[in-house]
Write a structure and sequence with these properties.
The structure is a single chain. The protein is mainly alpha-helical. The chain is 58% helix and 0% strand. The chain starts with 10 loop residues before the first helix and ends with a helix. Belongs to the initiator RepB protein family. Residues 6-56 form the Initiator Rep protein WH1 domain.
Length: 85
């Protein structure tokens, strides 16, 4: 049974998400869903491929091996952009 993940996003995060690929956006949402806004921000936030696959199980269906590659490629494309800031 899947846990219910609720994500509340600020306007600046919504605006920034328009520049993300689908998998980058999914990865960011998977990370955000782990944050409890009532507690201090945890460092680091980890998203395992298994957790990513579980969140998007209905989306991916039988493409399980692709799910493990998707978060990796999303991280590889997000990191250079983050370092530029």
């Amino acid at each position: 049974m899947h846990k219910c993940h609720k994500v509340t996003k600020s306007n600046s995060l919504i605006a920034a998400s328009y520049r993300l690929t689908l998998n980058e956006h999914r990865l960011v949402l998977a990370a955000i869903s782990q944050i409890d806004p009532r507690k201090p921000l945890p460092r680091p936030i980890r998203v395992c491929a298994h957790d990513f696959a579980e969140l998007y199980d209905g989306v991916w269906g039988a493409m399980e091996q692709k799910v493990h590659l998707s978060p990796t490629s999303a991280v590889q494309s997000l990191l250079p952009r983050h370092r530029l800031r």
